[in-house]
């Protein structure tokens, strides 16, 4: 999450929150004196990882970033295919491949986003059983982002200083 606070050269306190990468454009002020401000948001991904933990009641899922912090992209508790975590599992327990627990991504994000390391027991994510009789797993896709994000705003005091040096 990037928070753009008071931008030099603009009147008043201007706050915007933005999650992601790209640009923001908004109008500052009103009437004939209004101006547009465009900010480019740059976030470098250190790496993207996928971790799968088979559910057996005892396994723990570990997420970690060598540099930067965790940002969970998606998480699944359930089953999306017949191959993942299928070793020694009877075929009837692999049959439902449309099984997932709603809200899993939000739970994993709450526990892990912004941390360098995170451990999750699938029991803490399993708030209910989305498909009885089906073997399930916890699969998380996450990225490692540097803790610092850069925002360059066209029309800001910092931008004007860079242009006239």
Q: Give the averaged pLDDT, no decimals.
A: 75
Count the E strands: 11
Order of strands across the widest beta sheet?
Answer: 5-10-7-8
Total number of domains: 2
From the spread of the alpha carbons, the general shape counts as elongated
CATH superfamily of the largest domain: Rhamnose-binding lectin domain (RBL)
Q: State the helical fraction.
A: 10-25%
Poorly predicted segments: 1-21, 159-165
The CATH class designation of the largest domain is Mainly Beta
End-to-end gap: 31 Å
The main sheet comes to: 4 strands, antiparallel
Give me the Rg, rounded. Answer: 22 Å
Order of helices and strands: EEEEEEEEHEHEEH
The CATH architecture of the largest domain comes to Sandwich
CATH topology of the largest domain: Jelly Rolls
The fraction of residues in strands falls at 35-45%
Based on secondary structure, the structural category is mainly beta
Q: Can you count the helices?
A: 3
């Amino acid at each position: 999450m990037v928070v753009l606070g008071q931008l030099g050269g603009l009147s008043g306190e201007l706050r915007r929150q933005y999650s992601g990468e790209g640009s923001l454009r908004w109008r500052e002020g009103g009437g004939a004196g209004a101006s547009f401000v465009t900010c480019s948001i740059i976030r470098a991904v250190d790496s993207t990882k996928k971790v799968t933990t088979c559910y057996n009641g005892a396994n723990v899922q570990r997420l970690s970033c060598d540099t930067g912090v965790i940002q969970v992209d998606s998480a699944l508790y359930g089953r999306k295919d017949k191959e993942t975590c299928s070793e020694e599992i009877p075929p009837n327990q692999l049959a439902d491949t449309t099984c997932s627990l709603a809200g899993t991504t939000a739970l994993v994000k709450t526990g892990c986003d912004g941390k360098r390391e995170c451990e999750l027991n699938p029991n803490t994510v399993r708030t209910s059983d989305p498909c009885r009789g089906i073997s399930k797993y916890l699969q998380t896709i996450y990225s490692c982002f540097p803790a610092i994000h850069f925002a360059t705003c066209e029309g800001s005091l910092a931008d004007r200083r860079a242009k006239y040096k």
